[in-house]
Amino acid sequence: MQESNIAWTDSTWNPTHGCSKVSAGCDSCYAERISRQYGHTDDEWILENADANVTMHPEKLEEPYALDEPSRIFVNSMSDLFHSQITDEFIRDVFAVMRNCPHHVFQILTKRPGRAAHMTLEWPENVWMGTSVEDKRVAERIDLLRDCDAHTLFLSFEPLIGPVGDVDLSGYDWAIIGGESGPDYRDMEHEWARNLLEQCRDQDVRYYFKQSSGSQPETGTRLTVKNERFGVFEQRRIRELPDLPAVTKRARAALEQEIKDGAEA
User: Fold this and answer.
1) Burial class (CB in 10 A: 0-12, 13-18, 19+), 61
2) In Å, how far are 53, 135, 220, 259 from 26, measured between CA atoms?
3) DSSP run (H or E) holding 117
4) Cα 195 from Cα 113, distance rounded (Å)
5) What is the signed CA dihedral for 135, 137, 139, 144, rounded to 10 degrees?
6) Angstrom distance (rounded) from CA 100 to CA 92
7) What is the Cα–Cα distance from 164 to 195, expressed in whole angstroms?
8) Which of 59, 124, 194, 205 has the most beta carbons within 10 angstroms of its beta carbon?
């Protein structure tokens, strides 16, 4: 488990490792690049190599218990928890840990929303479940995840490599928007991101503009939007987050009181 440079989270936790490319958003996968760079996997992340590339790490299940500071934790930044190689039993083991750590918020992203939505799971309030949508070709993922029983649903339009079009965001709480980063990044038009901002505003969904496209992460963290009053374009930093679930607020308050009582003893 380690601290993260991803703006919308605090730490990353990887009880599984490796994945398989499923759509154009995966073409320049940073996780594959890092994994192969450091020798964790040797083969291309395609379905034919999934047996070798996708692994479960039960020895990492206990890691969130050691993190005392209440945090937002991105689950599997180097994998997809709902990959077909990950067993139902192991997914339930991961959920048991998240359920036992209500003072943390766990953020999960998948490109396999059908499995996430239809597995029989006990969804704790402190788990935010999301799916990635890079352009209109995979917009059906939005409808697939909507059936999920998670208390907080979100969408990651990152890397945004094309327009998404008009979409139904009902049932969703949050949208992350970001351009691709890395040596072979593809350009993101701010017009695509502005269109999503308008849809989020119309449908009461929180909006988080992470970055423009660029060779380095956190390149251009301000969105170009039109100032309706003055009729000019300006740069705005829009980084909204969902509300913390009640269970997390209670757990964090109890933890703070425990620390205070210990200091006064």
Assistant:
1) middle
2) 15, 12, 22, 43
3) helix 113-118
4) 23
5) -140
6) 12
7) 9
8) 205
Per-residue pLDDT reduced to its tens digit, 65-123: 999 899 999 999 999 999 999 999 999 999 999 999 999 999 999 999 999 999 999 99
- Beta strand 72-75 with 105-110 is parallel
Name the residue with tokens 């009729």: 231
What is the b/e burial string over 120-155, where b = at least 16 CB atoms within 10 angstroms of the residue's CB? ebebbbbbbbbbbbbbeebbebbebbbebebbbbbb
Q: Taking a C-beta distance cutoff of 8 angstroms, is the pair 45, 29 a contact?
A: yes
Q: Token pair of 59, please?
A: 């020895």
Counting residues of the chain whose pLDDT is more than 70, the rounded percentage is: 98
Taking the model in full, what pTM does it have?
0.94
Lookup: tokens for 258:
């425990």
